Amino acid sequence: MKKHETFADVISARGIERRDFIKYCSLIGTYLGLSAAMVPKIIFAMETKPRIPVIWLHGLECTCCSESFIRSAHPITADIVLNMISLDYDDTLSAAAGHQLEAVRKQIMKEYKGKYILAVEGNAPTKDNGVYCMIAGDSFTNVLKETAADAMAVIAWGSCASFGCVQNARPNPTGAQPVHKIIKNKPIVNVPGCPPIAEVMTGVIAHLLTFGKLPELDRLKRPKAFYGTRIHDQCTRRSFFDAGMFVESFADDGAQKGWCLYKMGCKGPTTFNSCAGIGWNEGVSYPIKSGHPCIGCSEPNFWDNGPFYTRLAEIPFVGTNSNADKIGMVAVGAAAAGMAAHAVGTVIKNKRSQAETTEKED
Amino acid sequence: MARLYEEQYVWRLPVRIYHWINAICITILFPTGLYIASPIFSPSIGEAVWYHQMAWIRYIHFGTAFVFLANFLFRLYWALFGNDRYARFAGFQPWKPIWWGQPFKDQLASYLFIRKDEPNYCGHNPVAALTHFLFVFCGSIFMLMTGLAMYGETNTGGFIDTLFGWVMLVFGSTHAMHTMHHLVAWLFPVYLILHIYAVVRHDIVDRSSTTSSIITGYKHRVEECPEYAD
Ligand code: HEM
Ligand code: SF4
């Protein structure tokens, strides 16, 4: 392990020009919503601060976060993202394996006690003593707790680590729990998305490096800079939404003309993310722009708020094909039927009591 | 048989005004809300900016929602501080076992045809009070809290979001909150059926002018006058 190397050292050793380095720093500053005056601070931090050692754990997950991370948009980011931090342990990307790799994790935990960052991709199945995800002979839940104990902060990458994603969708057979349900006493930042946008991931790390603390977080512990706005409010198709011009089927005229995908089940109105701003794949596009409704992948429980292609969600515990309108109409029907029956009852009752009084009078 | 009608002033003006503003608001909120969820008319001639159709429907929903809110707060004030024995919350104490006592049981038994007589109340009978509490009071609070939380999301960290944004945490996600706002919206038509039926039925059964009382304020107590019996 190389020690006290700065990020700038690493990239210059790689032959990356200073010009590109400055560009990258400005870009990150912009994404983070910092003023231009802060950019020198980012540059200074990158040039002088030793790289932060990072332990990157993989629990129950699909590795799409890693895939996204290594595809950051800026021309030199393939290098930057992997070198900005000192990614000392990552069982997916490391050359080392087995006991060797586990030894590295233990070593970092000891040498950088309280100084390293724990990045978690995936979550922990807690049922049956965590047997549904075993790493190096131990349950992931234990590995996670052990590694978090001496971390400076925890980054929960992706919807799995942040909220649970598909693993803890109903009925959650493995008892999968997101990181914040297991680690209680550490600063945690959630970076949801399936996967999160690469620039968002590097942005969070750049912030940590520059300021030595987590960025400002919202109620769901997400960085406000990236998750403060709904996709719907930044969407390129929003004018069609306001006009009421909707795609009715993927084959119709509206679909070709790029109308709003609301009626195709778009979850943009209930999803906080930067897709419509930063975009994907070097800012080329994002799902809605490409003609597919947003599935809300960065929202908690998005699998349970489906189906993906209808606007109205299924109602939990009532079952598939239920929705608020169907249940509501049944309730209204039941009320109307009940009242009709009661009216008949009232008429019968009145007839009887009338008969009784006449009997008495007779 | 002759009958004597005793006039009673029950619903004072603030209560009547509240009632009708509330009725109008819900009549607007429910269909606009359903339309927001399932917009069925799609204008397809001309430019998007000409129509603002969806925007208008949402605007009407939100505008009405704030009238609904103000009206609700006004009624709350009247219930807590108004000097109005028929509109006050003071008598409504379902947390005390005694509230569920004989009057409540008698009224319920009467509605269920177990008792023959029809108890007569000037204000709300206990079963009606409970129904109002569940549907109108709790239902409105639920719609207001979830509605304002959704409304605030356009401007996170803004005034409304700061006050009501936390409501989302109760549902786990914004989408689940939309779903519940939508589901609970159906309480209102269900309530409407129960409400109108009960009012008209009372009017017919005990001839107490319940229906017109919410316009005039007056109910009538009916007494048989045996001395005039023919
Ligand atoms: C009797 C009262 C109300 C009824 C029956 C009602 C009904 C509805 C319905 C059915 C929806 C569609 C939900 C969906 O599927 O997304 C809706 C949406 C909404 N309502 Fe209400 N609502 C009521 C009161 C309120 C109040 C008091 C507010 C407060 C501002 C409010 C704000 C909203 C918002 C922000 C939306 C989401 C609109 C969108 O996603 O574009 N509602 N309402
Ligand atoms: S496509 Fe989706 S996010 Fe875009 S305006 Fe329509 S509903 Fe909103």
Q: Can you offer a commentary on this structure?
A:
The complex is a heterodimer of chains A (362) and B (230). Chain A is an alpha/beta fold and 362 residues long. Chain A has three domains: 7-227, NADH:ubiquinone oxidoreductase-like, 20kDa subunit (Rossmann fold); 229-322, Cytochrome-c3 hydrogenase, C-terminal domain (Cytochrome-c3 Hydrogenase, Chain A, domain 2, Irregular); 327-362. Chain A is built from 15 helices and nine strands. Chain A has helices at residues 7-13, 18-31, 39-48, 64-69, 77-84, 98-111, 140-148, 158-162, 179-182, 198-211, 224-227, 238-243, 253-257, 275-278, 324-361, and strands spanning 53-58, 86-90, 117-121, 124-125, 134-135, 138-139, 153-157, 176-177, 188-191. In chain A, a hairpin with a 2-residue loop joins β5 (134-135) and β6 (138-139). In chain A, α1 (7-13) crosses α5, α2 (18-31) crosses α3 and α3 (39-48) crosses α10 (198-211). The longest helix of chain A has 38 residues, at 324-361. Chain A starts with 6 loop residues before the first helix and ends with a helix. The model of chain A has no long low-confidence stretch (mean pLDDT 88). By secondary structure, chain B is mainly alpha-helical. Chain B has one domain: Transmembrane di-heme cytochromes, Chain C (Fumarate Reductase Cytochrome B subunit), CATH 1.20.950. Chain B has helices spanning 13-37, 48-51, 53-81, 102-111, 126-152, 159-164, 167-171, 174-185, 187-206, 210-216, and strands at residues 3-9, 218-224. In chain B, strands 1-2 form a two-stranded antiparallel ribbon. In chain B, α1 (13-37) runs antiparallel to α3 (53-81), α3 crosses α5 and α5 packs antiparallel against α8 (174-185). The mean pLDDT of chain B is 89. At the A-B interface, α12 and α15 of A face α2, α3, α8 and α9 of B.
